[in-house]
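Chain X:
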Amino acid sequence: MPARLGATRRCAAVAIALALALATAGCGLGSGSELDHVELTATRDYGAEQLFGRGVDDTTESDTVMRVLERSAEISTRYGGGFVQSIDGLEATRDSGRFWDWLYYVNGVEAGVGAADYELRGGEAIWWDYRDWTATQRVPAVVGSWPHPFVDGYEGRRLPVLVECLTGGNACAEVRARLKREGAVVASGDPEGAIRVLVGPWDQVRRDPAAAQIEDGLQASGVFAEFVQVGDGFELRGLDEEGAPARDFGRNAGLVAATRRYEAPPVWVVTGTSAAGARAAATLLDEDDLRDHYAVAVDGGKKTPLPLR
């Protein structure tokens, strides 16, 4: 047999074997292995109105946040397809110096890359929100994807949760119980890289550098609330979408919020103007009270999503 003919036949045999292997696997080139269920939510105006919420089961390891969105809604993109311009006809816009855009979170943490570059690992909660970001473009972490990031992790890693009890008393026990109920791994020591939950009255919680960003203002923390010192104590004040003071809460008000310092994992604060306020905030740790909210205040048993409208 001529050498050239033999080589040709061997190449053909390899190609056929490869095609058969792919057919047997039931996938095409680049499709990847199947991933766990992904949650996809779209809202507007800081979560004030849910546009849709659905589970996506046909995701693979080659998927990105953008690909999942493309299969679930009518979208348009910009900047070479890396960023979302519109979802189901609701389009990013600029008007009289104000800016409305689609911004997204994965497991309650602001994404640091465009949606086309964010690769999925499975189990994520993806939240798109259309909002006026004139007051602050950066909101590094939110509470509205509870029980994420505690149950499915941060940046692809399932991290332990460290509950730091800052004279929080019964509130700490409540927080630990609710986290464990959701399946979170609550640490007993002080593991490096844990997702931290600070529990206690604000006069104690504010000593932590991550929580102290709330006192540095909306641009620093992304939290639409502030604690105002009155005498020896503090009052909780809610901010509106423009970052302006909009409501003063009562003497035992509570707050559940999240922020992030540098590139560290998010830090949640379960706090209040008093120990009673912190206990009230701890009772908000469930999906009914936190879903699709950036932060939540509680006063006299009544919850108020933040920012105020």
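Chain Y:
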Amino acid sequence: MNALTPRGTSLETRLLGTPSARLPGALPPEAQPRPSARLSAVELRELRYFAAAVRTGNLGQAARDLNVTAPAISQQLRKLEDALGTQLLVRHSRGVTPTLAGACLLERIDSILQLLEAPLDPEGAGAAIGGAVAVAMPAEIATLLAAPLMEQVLRRWPSVMLNLQESSGGIESRLLRGLVDIAVLQDPPDLDGLRIEPLLTEGLGLVAVPDAGLAVSSLPLRLRDLGGAKLILPNPRHWLRRALTRTAFQRGVRLDAVLQVDSVAMTKEMVRNGLGYTILPAVAVREETARGSLVFRPIAQPAISATLAMAVRPAAARTVRDVAQVAGDVIRSLTASGAWPGAQLVRPTAPDMAPATWHLPLLEAVPGSLELVEAD
């Protein structure tokens, strides 16, 4: 609860003020509609608990993050649902997911908490960045991006609680539903309701064990050479499968997906065990190719490339926009330093998501680690 807010004050009073502080032209107290018992019963604590539950998807984890017990969170969430008169969460064996009403409430809570946590001192308001920000990214790039992004955000804004989520698909839907604040997308479709900025392009290639037939040559692979190969691919809605299927159809090549696996980690393990080949960007196997356990062979004639982009909702809070800006700078720095194999930068197109006026040092790739070094 905000330190300036008396304990027990209703949410409506905290947000709208007392009758004596009403805006010019507002109705006098006797002419205003009386707040419902439901609205007056909602407490800020309940909203914080609800936001934490949705962000983590698990009441136990939310309780640990908030330093309370799981029964306490569950009780407050029941009270919130009773007060608002609608179901906000679907409870299941894996945790909780928001209903449509819950997703709508979460988006409003972000704005409420942002306002309440901002300082009242006008001179210090410009420097205040804090709150929780959820960032979803594809599993193909998570091992490269997550650590430097977390380091840069914590160093710049220690009060920001960054929630990094790795996903094998459906990131666009989670952003549109308000389950995450920022999405790093591979080959994103043109979606209404999102502001999308392309950051880089990268080529796809065949991933195989070193002694596999298609891995013998180091030359780029022709797409038609994949015909008849035993491929381990994600589901047809996955960005990689869409890009591969589209190009193969245009070239009249039939691809044989022997196994359908949505997990990048499981796919690489199956390839290592000789169950087939897979198609991935080079960044997804950078550690394995450095160790020599897997081989990456670029696909050419034609080359198949994917675009990596940053997406936020147009009305995103200031903290979300600033973290998205830092994430974009981290991605550009990794690419410029050569730590992101096979990637080429794309010029910024959205003015309000362009690189910040400050710049990150280039990230230099060191075997087994990432180290920050100053750019020349």
